[in-house]
Amino acid sequence: MKNADVIIVGGGVIGCSMAYYLAKSKIKAVVLEKEEIGVGASSANGGGVRQSARDLREMPLAMHAVTKLWPGLTDELGVDVEYHQKGNLRLGKTEGHMEILDRIVGQGKLAGLDLKIIGRDEVREICPYVSEEVIGASFCPTDGHANPMKTTLAFYKRARELGTTFITGEWVKSLLMTKGKISGVITGTNEYHASKVILAAGLESRTLAKTVGIDLPMQKIMLEALITEALPKMFPQMIGTAAADFYGHQTDHGSFVFGGVTGLEPFTSDESQPVTRRFTAPATCRAILGYFPCLEHTKIIRTWSGFLDEMADHVPVLGQVEEVPGLTLACGFSGHGFGISPAVGQLVAELIVNGQPSISLEAFHYDRFRRV
Amino acid sequence: MKKPMERTFHTSEFKAQADDSLIICRCEEITKGEIRRALYDGMSTINEIKRFLRVGMGLCQGQTCNRLVKGIIAGELGIAWQDLEVSKPRSPVRPIAMKIYANDGLVK
Amino acid sequence: MYRIEEHPILSAFPKGKLVKFAYDGKTLEGYEGEPIAMALKANGVMVHRYTSRHSQPRGVFCAIGRCTDCVMIVDGMLNVRTCIIPLQEGMKVQTQDGLEKKEQDD
Amino acid sequence: MMMERFEVIVIGAGPAGLAAAIEAASNGMQVVVFDENSRPGGQLFKQIHKFFGSKEHHAKIRGFKIGEKFLQEAETLGVKVVLNASVIGIFQNREVSVMLGDRISHYRANAIVIATGASEKMIPFAGWTLPGVIGAGAAQTMMNIHGIRPGNRVLMVGSGNVGLVVGFQLIQAGCKLEAVIDAAPRIGGYGVHAAKIARLGVPFYLSHTIIGARGAEFVERATIAEVDQNWQQVPGTEKDLELDTICLAVGLTPMSQLARIAGCQVADLPQKGGMVPVCNAFGETSIPGIYATGDVAGIEEASSAMIQGKIAGAAISLAQGYLSAEDFQLRYASYDHSLGQLREGTFGHENKGRTDLKTTDDGYPLSQFLFRKGYLADGELSHYPGVPTSERLNQELMPVIECIQNIPCNPCQDACPQGCIVIGSTITNLPAINQSAKCSGCGMCVVSCSGQAIFLVDVNYAPGYAAISLPYEFKPLPAVGTSGVALDRSGAILGEAEVISVRKTAVMDETAILTMKVPVQWAMSARFFKQL
Predict the structure, then answer these.
(1) Which chains have 3+ CB pairs within 8 A of D?
(2) Given this model, what pLDDT does residue B1 score?
């Protein structure tokens, strides 16, 4: 049996970020991770740090992260997280695409985001490599990308230096309640006691929340990505498409990381471990070449897949569970948690320390689900 | 099943070694010293070392250095060889030009 | 200078026709279909590229396409595994410097 | 477009893969073999030495010729061998994606055989990234496939069979082998392989490691030094060697990436060379219908890989209804027996890595001198059953068999038409001289010995002179009448010698028998002829 002030379940980017911001406030949490640091979606995602095309509820978090947190992260953590703020281009080839982009731009403007539609020529001024077929794009100059693996491990490294205890290979099996309040967790080998438990365990959060009677409408989606050999620097923007068939960017290393979607994912995600499908990488390559034909000789060196924890309304669950005092949820990021991870870490830390985050998390309440 | 591992922070200083400049990952040109330093900084598994330093993430995908990195980690952290999981190899086993990968017999 | 003219066990090494190819602006000869790296070695070329980070010379290491140490720029394409890609007449082979061609090249 | 489905997809056209394909096809199955190389045969086509084993293991046949035979057999049985075809992944439902030319094709199979072989282990040292540092496999590929000498002056790092065999091949290709070094205190490979290069004058530095390679743009020098029992460098023992090539032969490791991509359960087992798929006795992995065979399932010799391949092929035929349970049992029993034979002896499974063995299985002393030096000391010869007594040697022409470790191999017994050589049914036994048979001097034992350990010695050739017949696999082949020097087992020059006969016929398969005349006192020490 071990004791802690705060237990964080999950050593992904969210768990590590929270651990770091808590440690900055002198709270040394114990992070329990089933596998290794940053193994799930934290190391499988495409690295987008984006505000555009987000649900309006997430916009304050994304904008806060981009304006206040991401720019200083490398210095603050002492590890280059490879953050670049050179904009997000969402490309369109058809009138239908442009309509989709118009809607996205409209949404962004509502939240006060610098986001606009640009025409054929302006797209090429920003990124001269796009195919002739591209007729326009939405452009958000303050969006960008970072290295998700290094960011996760940088939060971990710094939090560890500030006194956070990380225990990997420790699989939390259930939450413990005593006298109506959270009192700790039970793992495969140990019992940990704490009056505050934060659940940031991705998909596993659903199983664990159920142990105290909370049912999160979350599903498992398996997504695939791929990486190319390194090329000389071509363009620094984060790329997406109105058709949402692929997204990606060139990394500091020179390789391109691209994620691709076939549309079959909701029907083929029933594996216990992430696997790649024979048809996904070819489909992603076709999608990429449809926008960047100049990459035709660029070699793919690896593909991978990962699960994401998708909430029924594609927006995470964040905040305290009032009916289970001491339990805080930070899960269900639905494939776009990386970009807001510093903000989530900071706000949840504030919630734990002051009982009140500086940006309201009300929209992310676990009990919001009635009908999608 | 993985064994629980507590990632305690070393308060002692990082000690350089004579062979720290030895290249271990030939593709990404990562040295033994960089790996040892990352281990000191808390990276404690092959995957963490890989993701932190890009060891084994280059063109050859770790075909030469995987075993070497495993040996260094096992030695530095005193972990049994068998308890260290190597990173998963993934398709494609050889680099493939996107144009070829895209051409899998399916018409757009 | 590295071709084996006479071997006690192997009677002959089946080779394609002798062709010319460009190497860093020079014209060299090799046999069509043999790996580019072999044609280069036969001409005494040891250095295939310089690395990105430390600018160190690299050449053939595994000779079977696995280690990717021997990559060069071939017909403008980066990172071509010369130990397995067959030589063709008129190929343009360039020493790779990091991710670019070597400066003094054409 | 429809998915094409094969009964069996074999990945890798090396010894194991081809054997599996042949076995399955011979039972009536439809088989396709994909190999990423432009030539089939895997390592077989790089193996230009004669194989060990018995007849059923293709003993005394050179590896590349076994490869040719296998290919022909596969072709006759209708096996489709597709070259330049890289299998890039194995997916669920036994789907296989193959890159061929400018496209990817996806196939499904009822059974998949992963026979992707091994890759080389490498050891890092200062300067190991310099051009000129290569794998021993790279050296083999360059010289034996492409006819290119990897360098002129070569250091071999590693004294296992790969290091020893490739070392000999380097000399055959015209390179100068400067030395063979090994961090272990003893030679790891067969004594007969070591003796082959020791008598050419190649020094062995045991308990030595490479400290570094130097050179501005490529290897120009190397430093080696002695190591103590804890593998720590002994100060002051550095030696500087001038050379242009460093060959690394420090072991092989299974290329199990595809098995791991497929999701097969794996284990990292040092005795198998690294990460291997966990397989049952028939090579089936944790995923039903996916088999792994040959080096990918554990590093062994090519001869073993061929039998393992057959076992997998038979198991697949059984599983898919092409072989009855009785027939399978019969075949399996015979393959298993054959495999068992190859795994016996001084270097067999049980003894792998053992350094405490003092005697052979049949009770003869194991030469510790040989382990340290690479050749037998003169005084040790008489311990072994293949060396005739001095009484007999004084009377008649006799074979002298310097085969002194239990290696599964018996072609010499079959080769002798006079019945002079006896091994018996345990093929790891040391060959013994039959006291009642008479040698005709035909030399078939000399050329049949894959370890080149048999010599014919005639001490009564001429007054004061003996004639020594030895296997010779170098170019140029000296002509009769050539004078030169006789070398002893360590490669030291004994003195003048003259070639008095050179025999080379088709049946000898490129191993010539060279007979040299030497002063009779060197009859039991002169073992090589060097042209001056």
Answers:
(1) A, B, C
(2) 55
